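Example record for the data management plan.
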Amino acid sequence: ATDAAGSFMVNPDGLNISNMTPGPIRPADKAYESDAVNFGPRFGFAYNVSGNGKTVIRGGTGVLFSPQIMAALWSGVHALNAPRRVIFSRQDAIKYGLKYPMYNDDFRAVVARQIKDESITNVFQVVNPKIQNPYAFHYTLGVQRELASDLALETSFVGVSGRKFLLNRVPNEPDRVTGIRPNPKFLTNFYLDESQTSSYFSWQTSLRKRYSHNLSSSVHYTWGKALAYGGGGDIGAAYQGDNNTRVQDFYNIAIEKSPGAGDVTHNFVAEWGYDTPRLSSVKSSIVRQIVGTWQVGGVVSAATGEPLGITQTTSAYHQRPDYVSGQNPINDNWRETPNRQYLNLAAFAQVPVIQASGGAARPGSLGWGAVRGPGFWNLNLSLGKNFAIRENVKLQLRADMLNALNKLNLSNITTSINSGTFGQARGTRGQRVIQLNGRLSF
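Corresponding structural encoding:
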């Protein structure tokens, strides 16, 4: 292992891959040229419209900065004499006689020959040393209104715009036709800079009833839209999880603006809790203990589907298929089809693959997240009661039912067009689960 931060790009010709050359290994305590001043103003207000506190307008905005997550930079180099990962092209495999099966020691020998005999630079990633700290604009404007002494309505516009987040792209990919890299002397998996931007806009409405007459409840609805070039996140290794690498064209990231990870257009949640009457008028203490003061609660949730990233397997790091114009991408009666065929196979077509490169002839026309997965709805219920056995001894019994109606919410759509199960729902969000528990306190 090493405390080096990574190989950083020094390139006098912008992002011209044919002239891309790596700079020196930078020390761990100065992985990038950090900006010294980050100005983050914040402003908020609350206006009492009628003067009696029943109608209030609230708003605010602010700019929040964050330092770069160093793990994303340190992950680029974990040994000075070997890259963390190597991706060979089809032409590389032919040139070096790579055949299955091969092991790490076999590949290590090939990489050593590349570095020694061919003066090839082989690194896991290069990082723009002038990356800036990410920041986000937060803004909200809403109205709160008291409808009754125990009932309030709130509706607000809420938005977040992220800038300068980490984005991974794959540079120096082999030419789609010839299979030859633009710069055969420079092999790297990723180019990391701060090109990622994201935006989230939503309208959030809540109706809340505070506890009175043995009942408390609330209803919440959110309409939202999240957009980003990648997943939109700024955590982890910057190429995993939410921040997926989905750029098809290194020089055209703007065309990749699409739904971000976890984007849900409609989200609804309602919850309630009710205490049954104490039955004070009943003379029998045993009846009061058994029948009275049960706690009943429930949560209803429903949401539309999240975006699907439909892909095509080729030698390129990321490739998407074509959308066939005029076709509905989702089968109308998919729940009744054999194998739960959610996606309409006729709506997608593979891009032709060039034999010399093993890559697709061009980027696919289907946008990331252009098709959404199935939505869901669910009901959870709970029933509980506290029994006073003695003054200092109490027993609590409780039953919780998750997915109380055993609703079949299908999920896990196969998104690789090369798969034999492409477009099928291969999982569920879970069956009914009943939990029984008791607690004795003394």
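Summary line stored alongside the record: Residues 288-442 form one domain.
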